[in-house]
């Protein structure tokens, strides 16, 4: 049985009380904002030709937005602690409604700015009083061809809440309502199967536990396959609606344009990864050989090849390892992370009944960073802590060094700092390796990281691109179509050795990121960039300082420009190819350490 929320010690729960001491305090703030926000910005309507009026509007808007984000942070954290708690579910729904109302009431702002003549808009950009907001206004200016009339923007805002229905329904089904039959180990012992335990079982040396976990997880999704297909169809339809309404040529272009990321960055990633897939097929064949299998299945891809049992850590040990590993980033960086993890209770550590699955970093401008975990003690969990700590430090430094308007870093660079921190931890653990076996395990973990983060996420990105293309063409998504395509991609990416089990064909149904509108590719670009930056930072303190400047820059520049300034050009395939060259070297090192051919 899973522990209830109240059974988890407070020291292992995130310090959500630092945001609001009680739910009642949150309600009080909610009511104040609900009253003060309504209609407070409409007086500026029709006056944005005047730079002083525009500045006053932006300041009032940002103050309200900042307060709303604090409300939202508390509400979604409480909601994710226990998805079955009606009070927190209601609070989350209320604040999402308030945010939607705010978006509706301010939907006229960008259209009015866009309605200004070219000369008038340039005068706004060049006015000294608007200097702090120049980049923000430039980004709005880029959207001129895709901004609608004020009346149409109001309709788009009115529709915003309904467009999120598929995502919310998937989250409720996936995290709260869906249950799975228990798995069984090789001794016939029943093992409870949850989202949190699944990956721990996948990394078990017990093949029967892996097989039954994989099959029973697949059966759980198969039982809801028609509902899940309709939900993903609905989500893609919402993306298509927004793309068409804003006159974009495709859903992909619509998702990437606001961040000034050309669609060719996405398609070039897929092409670059596909050109290097023989390396992945070689690794799958090596796994089959080392595990002495007649056939290799998807549930064998995470099985330990060497010594995983010795790498299990308590949470306190994991926390100490992560803190120690970031020493190369300087004393200030390390001290800030230590304070957060040890004293300020950034982390919600363990799984409890109806807690959201997975892990993430969250927070707002007026809070500490927060990390949701479902810690099980595996090396993967330790790396996850390092990963989320990277996100959190990126957020912390950006908030400390940027004004509110530029504190949020672009989605495109969101996975760079997280994967950079993973590399720091692996480097630290390698120095502690006591034998060739231990070192080989860590090398293989790096190999698996590239497989999971660059290869698997690019496969996800290709799937996401295709389902959007089908909907754009008017092809209905059906369970048969999605299953068939998922199996085809699995064969392409993992090679001829992999067995295409029935449970594999529903793999797409359990990926929450398909509801995030072209997010997953950024894991692949993020690790490619992180590996390049990690290599550079290790060579000189100047490069390290460039990296720290990068994670302190928030959203003060477009994402590709931020990375280029730090020393990596993601407009080319070079970083992806360099990552696969690194993979090839790791594979060679792994074979030499274990003396396998």
Description:
The protein is mainly α. The protein has a domain at about 5-165: Butyryl-CoA Dehydrogenase, subunit A, domain 3. It contains 24 helices and seven strands. The chain has helices at about 25-35, 50-80, 85-105, 110-115, 120-125, 135-140, 150-165, 165-175, 195-200, 205-220, 225-245, 250-255, 265-275, 275-290, 315-325, 330-345, 380-400, 415-430, 435-475, 480-495, 520-535, 540-550, 560-565, 575-595, and strands at about 185, 190, 295, 345-350, 360, 370, 500. The strands form three sheets. Strands 4-6-5 form a three-stranded mixed beta sheet, with helices on one face. The protein has a two-stranded antiparallel ribbon with strand order 1-2. A hairpin with a 7-residue loop joins strand 5 (about 360) and strand 6. The two termini are about 45 Å apart. The mean pLDDT is about 95.
List the SSEs and their pairings.
Elements: H1 23-37, H2 51-81, H3 86-105, H4 109-115, H5 118-126, H6 134-142, H7 150-163, H8 165-177, E1 183-184, E2 190-191, H9 195-202, H10 207-222, H11 225-245, H12 251-256, H13 263-275, H14 277-290, E3 296-297, H15 315-325, H16 331-343, E4 347-348, E5 360-362, E6 370-372, H17 379-401, H18 416-431, H19 436-473, H20 479-494, E7 498-499, H21 521-537, H22 541-550, H23 559-566, H24 574-594
Parallel strand pairs: 3-7, 4-6
Antiparallel strand pairs: 1-2, 5-6
